[in-house]
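ok posting inputs for the S-adenosylmethionine job
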Amino acid sequence: MGEDRSGAGPEGGLPPLKPPPDRLYGRARGYKLRARQQKLLDIALPRLAFAPDLASGPLCAFSPRPSKLWVEVGAGSGEHAAAQIAAHAEAGLIACEVFENGICSLLSRLVPEGGEATASLPGNLRLWADDARALLRLLPESSVDLLFLLFPDPWPKARHAKRRFVHPVLLPVVARVLKPGAEWRVASDDPTYQAWVNEVMGTQSLFDMLQHTRERPPGWPPTRYETKALREGRTPVYWNLRRR
Ligand SMILES: C[S@@+](CC[C@H](N)C(=O)[O-])C[C@H]1O[C@@H](n2cnc3c(N)ncnc32)[C@H](O)[C@@H]1O
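and the output
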């Protein structure tokens, strides 16, 4: 018999709610970094790092102070984050990414070679080079206007279901930081993850499902993983959820 890849329990429902352990399963390090990448991490990253000032609130981390707070979980190489901050000066975006090479790609989009210490940087972008779950636990309640989770690692094997970011145990963590009425955008090209999101979202009461479509909605800039999925013949699904 083939392995159950859905993560569903024996009755077809969700598995027992064991909290996902707070350790990272993806890679944080890839190949040895080149000199330019090391400079981006050592010099440019601290200039853009999100340093939460709990007394003043997260919006004070941006300059000028934006009117909205957006968070992207797993920003990868940063093409989506770069497009969003260019199109939305009113929003301050915290892009979370743990994989060093992804952080370097994101930084290299913004910082010309030699300008690591001096190039002017976007005032409405900050980076969280750590686990996004730690950021979500740190941000004040009802502080986020929009959360992006685009093409998360799918962890398609059933025994890895607890590693998925969309998880019954993590939903309250996400819900706590979102303002009532705030939007959560999720996209995935993996059929197991697509079925999983529909199942998890169908059995919770924190979010309304506004949209569930196979056409990328307007205002959703493409990502690297999405482009790869389309090239390889997989059809993404895009969910638009709203915090109740
Ligand atoms: C499959 S990639 C997708 C990247 C990008 N969103 C895209 O669509 O091209 C998922 C990314 O999420 C990052 N990631 C996974 N878990 C994370 C976490 N807990 N916090 C921050 N980043 C995470 C991984 O390092 C990886 O770069």
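notes: Helices lie at 35-48, 79-87, 100-110, 132-138, 171-177, 191-202, 224-231. The CA atoms of residues 175 and 228 lie 30 Å apart.
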